[in-house]
Amino acid sequence: MATNEAPDIVVGRLPIYLRALTIMAEEGQEITSSQELSKKLGISSAQIRKDLSHFGEFGKQGTGYEIAYLRDQLKRILHVERTWPVALVGYGDLGTALANYAGFAPKGFEIVAVFDSAQDKVGQQIAGKEVLDLTEFPAVVRERDIKVAIVAVPSSAAQEVAGILVESGIKAILNYAPINISVPAEVQVQYIDPAAHLQHMTYYLE
């Protein structure tokens, strides 16, 4: 079954499995099971087996999963066996932290260009890259064949920036702005709002 035929909630769990398998492989472990993954991840072993079954048969009854093989297959399914060039829009405190974050590269992503519309920020250096004027975005995206972008701008600017991204050919947006943005159905959007996650947790606190 093709990846796009699996439920989105299932696709969303694949990176969690991939992370666990990568750690196991780095520790020298060769075999695992759905039961072991269940204990590590807090996801039922039945759910793990069901999720993986959307994409093929990866384990053997009584033997379990070969970690390196399953890890590589999940990378292929998620299309992260390659490195994706990423554009970052927003050179504020959050954008600076993201540009300096070393955790993207091992997962298949590299921030190759940083943009801002504030002229006092354009031309500054961050993580070995020059901050570019947002007006240059369409040309740079075409030149570098960028399909993925991160939005780290104030909520008041997020929709306008999203429009520029979509018109320039961006197909996947990771949005840190605390607001929902409107994009065409074929453009993937994921939201990261730390305050919303904190509010989720404080519901359970006395």
How is the topology of this model organized?
Elements: H1 8-26, E1 31-32, H2 34-41, H3 45-53, E2 59-60, E3 64-66, H4 67-78, E4 84-89, H5 93-100, E5 109-116, E6 125-126, E7 129-133, H6 137-144, E8 148-151, H7 155-167, E9 172-175, E10 188-191, H8 194-202
Helix pairs in contact: 1-4, 2-3
Give an overview of the whole structure.
The chain is α/β, with parallel strands linked by helices and 206 residues long. The chain folds into 2 domains: 3-78, Winged helix-like DNA-binding domain superfamily/Winged helix DNA-binding domain (Arc Repressor Mutant, subunit A); 84-197, NAD(P)-binding Rossmann-like Domain (Rossmann fold, 3-Layer(aba) Sandwich). The protein contains 8 helices and 10 strands. It has helices at residues 8-26, 34-41, 45-53, 67-78, 93-100, 137-144, 155-167, 194-202; strands spanning 31-32, 59-60, 64-66, 84-89, 109-116, 125-126, 129-133, 148-151, 172-175, 188-191. Strands 6-7-5-4-8-9-10 form a 7-stranded mixed beta sheet. A 3-stranded antiparallel beta sheet has the order 1-3-2. Strand 8 (148-151), helix 7 (155-167) and strand 9 (172-175) form a beta-alpha-beta unit. Helix 1 packs across helix 4 and helix 2 crosses helix 3 (45-53).
